[in-house]
Amino acid sequence: MDRFLVKRKLGDLMGKGEEPANLGGVTGNARKKPRREISRSAGHLAGLSWRHIRSKGLSCDYTVLFGKAEADEIFRELEEEVEYFTGALARVQVFGKWHSVPRKQATYGDTGLTYTFSGLTLTPKPWIPVLERVRDCISGVTGQTFNFVLINRYKDGRDHIGEHRDDERELAPGSPIASVSFGACRDFLFRHKSSRGKSHQQTVEVVRLQLAHGSLLMMNHPTNTHWYHSLPIRKKILAPRVNLTFRKILPTKK
After folding, report:
1. Does 229 count as an annotated binding residue?
2. Which terminus of the chain is more solvent-facing, meaning fewer CB atoms within 10 Å of its CB: N or C?
3. What dihedral angle (degrees, nearest 10) is formed by the CA atoms of 233, 238, 239, 240?
4. What is the pLDDT of residues 51-80, one digit of tens each?
5. Is 97 marked within a binding site?
6. Where does substrate bind (predicted)?
């Protein structure tokens, strides 16, 4: 991941600046090596050390938000209190066919919201204290606000999620998605949309991250416009992981 780490002013994370256009890390010609800015950022915001991951159309910020003791406590509360979908809501539509979701899912958020993805339209449950605690902590260090969270629980490394983009129409335009992980450390992959499939248009290097217990990954605009992300199968992982993706979605039109 280090080759995608670039220096950035602290104000940018708070929405006070823009990254230069030539981010590097990408080539439209497989025979030509890309130029990259490479450095490990030591930016600090609210006492945190941030790493800034950049490639063509990719803008993410990563930090360990919670220390081990606090992360352990939050993980325990999530395991005890989150109510996951069952029955028809535990299935997903892929290419017109319905399949059982290879993980557990739940949604929580403000009243008056709905969220549609993979053929399902979901109404979130009311916030519970542990989710409000995590949400408010993210807002405190980033200045961003969120009104909805999608929770994915992976019982072990066989549970996974395939390549997708979080680009549903309900998302507020230009808003970031905050991904917080608890439990087992898992690999997380970004693949540029032009590099997918056998007849892909460009050769753009896959970005691989490891999302640690208590970590926060901010997926900023326009990442989900250009990049797919996934959590692949890792059979050697035996422990569970719970991931919270906080979003800002538009109220349902009446």
Report:
1. yes
2. C
3. 40
4. 999 999 999 999 999 999 999 999 999 999
5. yes
6. 95-97, 115-117, 167
Q: Is residue 247 marked as binding?
A: yes
**117 assigned binding-site residue:** yes
Decide: residue 88, CB within 10 A, 0-12 exposed, 13-18 middle, 19+ buried: exposed
Residue 28 is assigned to a ligand binding site: no
95 is in an annotated binding site: yes
User: Which tokens in the block code for residue 248?
Assistant: 């800002």
Q: For residue 38, what pLDDT is reported?
A: 26
Whether residue 158 is annotated as binding a ligand: the answer is: no
Tens digits of residue pLDDT in 180-211: 999 999 999 999 998 887 666 678 899 999 99
Report which residue type is found at 207: V
Q: Are 53 and 202 in contact (CB under 8 A)?
A: no
Across 195-240, the runs of DSSP E, i.e. the strands, are: 207-211, 215-219, 227-231
Q: Full-prediction pTM beyond 0.85?
A: no
